[in-house]
Amino acid sequence: MSANLKLALRVLGRRKVFTAISLVGITLTLVVLVLASTIMDNMFAPAAPESRLDRIVAVKMVSEYGHDIDFGSNPGYAFLKQTVFNLPHADRVAIYSEIMAGVVYDGSRRIEAHLKHADGNYWNILDFHFVEGGPFSMADNDADRNVVVMSESMRDKVFGRTHAVGRTLNVGGRSYRVVGVVSPAAITREAAYAQLWVPIGTLNAEERSAVLGRFNALVLAHSRADIPAMKREFQSRVARVPVEDPKQFTGFRAGLDTTFESFSRNMTDNHHGDSAPTIVRATLAGAALLFMLLPALNLVALNMSRILERAPEIGVRKAFGAPRRTLVMQFVMENIVLTLIGGVVAFFMAIVALRLLAGNVPYLDSSMSINWRVFLYGMAASAVFGVISGAWPAWRMSRLDPVNALRGGSR
Amino acid sequence: MIQLQNIDKVYRTERVETLALQNINLEIAEGEFVSIMGPSGCGKSTLLNLMGLLDAPTSGRLAVAGEDVATQKERHLARVRNEKLGFVFQSFHLVPDLSVLDNVEIPLLYRKVAASERRRLALAALDRVGLGSRVHHFPSQLSGGQQQRVAIARAIVGRPRIVLADEPTGNLDSAMGEEIMSILHELNERDRTTIVMVTHDERFAERTGRIVRLFDGRMVA
């Protein structure tokens, strides 16, 4: 093993052109995969302010369906009241709205912002870091107080890098008092991301009775083990929610979902229920493999041409008794070393790419980061890539006829 | 040590059938130094490849180091090559990416030998061919004669009972050729290593114990 590793490093070091060409192809592919992994990691893995994701489930989509109709939307207040409020095993439940376009007026300046309405529990389920002040409470929400929490980047945009708590902010023509400033969440954090948060406030009668509406619900379970029981209870409650028009509709379809389940439900338009995560996971894995296939084929072609170049070496090794399996291992090891080097280079290039993107793409700030987990994904992808592109040429190489190989032939 | 009985070797392609060796009967005893001579294309290298278990006869019986090997599987043949045979090639065939020391260690990589022991044996083999001071050089930094000496060190590092040399002096000038021949003779006389050498050079052949002459795939002497 160590002899193979040593040889692999020597071969790659001495065949600089081949190594460079191969590394460019491998690295570019892996940069894209590492960036994709980073985005997914920042969507689905627990990290502040969604540190408790392993205990959080959510309701974000409801379909009301009939024989030839299927109408999907965010859940309304009435639906959530009947299905998630007072769920057994739930530590707490929060409701919040989808992102809305808000406009901040500062004298003659007009600043567009991503605005969310949330209740007081929202701040108890998500663990935001407050750089100033604190959250608004359930009492603030119930009393419909004009209070606002801002992201740090929005505060800097509106007030400059000065203290904001206690100051007044005009949002859409209504004045709010700033009560807190939070470190920004990445735009990929669906529940946590916004630039301004204001209370949901008092709902009118129509909003209170709406089954389909503009809300999402977050439910924090006491423990992860409670989630299956909560899901079962939720589904039995969903089955009991009366449809709005029994002539048109026969029932509701919704899930008390983890973040990935919720994403999958959305991607499949809520048509596949519990099998959606499997479908989406398989699609993503398939897409990643297909994306790796083209550069892998390119590397296979390069490796095949190297066989011709290295035929005498293979002949010598076979003459001196190298078993086929050992030769395959040697060549695959060379390829894995090459792709792992590509993986490390890609990791650092992805960090640079992410910083460039954060500086140039609106709403994508430095809060989206690459971590050791993404590094491991990248390394695993590199190893898979190495095996895929090395196995076939290695097998061909191991089967070379030694007499021909010593003459420099590739048969 | 090597026995060939009624050996034929036929190469077949879609259109042509070539009889490379025909009815070869040859016995080489332990400790012999045998030269194989003959014009180009007469089957010398084919015969050496059969003795080296790099190729299989079309028919006949072949035994190497006491083992009847004609019908053995490739994995077994690889082990016999590794333990009992050493090869020296006309064009040296050193691995350009490896140092002299690493090249000499190659046969030991396919045995259960610890890295430190591999190194010790390779250094001893290189000392024996007078290249103990060049162990960290790469093949491209050596002369042809030095490269062939490295190749001999590689062939003998595993202490094989048989060394097969395919025109070992063919790419060298006469002085370097003499050097290589004296190493081979020393190997044969001191260790009683059986040596079979293909050569075109009558002077070198005459100094070996026996000359086998081939013509059109047949033994003529």
The most extensive contact between chains is: A-B, 24 and 27 residues
How would a crystallographer describe the biggest sheet of chain A? 6 strands, mixed, barrel
Question: Could you state the order of secondary-structure elements of chain B as H and E?
Answer: EEEHEEHEHHHEHEHEE
Per DSSP E runs of 2 or more residues, the count of β-strands of chain A stands at 14
Low-confidence stretches of chain A: none
Query: What portion of residues of chain B belong to β-strands?
Result: 25-35%
Compute the number of strand runs of chain B: 10
**And the CATH topology of chain B?**
Rossmann fold
What's this, in brief?
With 411 residues, chain A is α+β, with helices and mostly antiparallel strands. Chain A is 50% helix and 19% strand. In chain A, a hairpin with a 2-residue loop joins strand 9 (168-171) and strand 10 (174-182).
Characteristic key phrases:
heterodimer; A: 411 residues; alpha+beta; six-stranded mixed barrel; four-stranded antiparallel sheet; 14 helices; 14 strands; 50% helix; 19% strand; elongated; B: 221 residues; alpha/beta; Rossmann fold; six-stranded mixed sheet; 10 strands; globular
Description:
The complex is a heterodimer of chains A (411) and B (221). Chain A has 411 residues and is of the alpha+beta class. Chain A has two domains: 2-45 and 279-406, no CATH class; 61-256, no CATH class. Chain A is built from 14 helices and 14 strands. In chain A, the strands form three sheets. Chain A has a six-stranded mixed barrel. In chain A, strand 9 (168-171) and strand 10 (174-182) form a beta hairpin. In chain A, helix 2 packs across helix 12 (324-360), helix 9 packs across helix 10 and helix 10 crosses helix 13. In chain A, 40% of the residues are buried. The model of chain A has no long low-confidence stretch (mean pLDDT 88). In chain B, the strands form two sheets. A six-stranded mixed sheet of chain B has the order 6-7-8-3-9-10, with helices on both faces. In chain B, strands 2-1-4-5 form a four-stranded antiparallel sheet, with helices on one face. Chain B contains seven helices and ten strands. By secondary structure, chain B is an alpha/beta fold. Chain B has one domain: 3-Layer(aba) Sandwich (Rossmann fold), CATH 3.40.50.300. Chain B starts with a strand and ends with a strand. The chains are: A alpha+beta (411), B alpha/beta (221).
